[in-house]
Amino acid sequence: MWIDTHCHLDASEFDADRDDVAASARRAGVSRIVIPGVERANFATVRDLAHCIDGGAYALGIHPLFTPRAQDDDLRVLRETIAASLDDPRFVGIGEIGLDYFVPTLDDARQQFFYDEQLKIAREFDLPVICHVRKSQDKVLKGLRVNGVKTGIAHAFNGSFQQAEAFIAHGMHLGFGGNLTFERARQIRRLAQQLPLAAIVLETDAPDIAPSWRYKERNAPDQVPGIAEVLAQLRGIDEAALSLGTTANAHAALPRLGLLSS
Question: Which residues does a divalent metal cation 2 bind (predicted)?
Answer without folding.
Answer: 132, 155
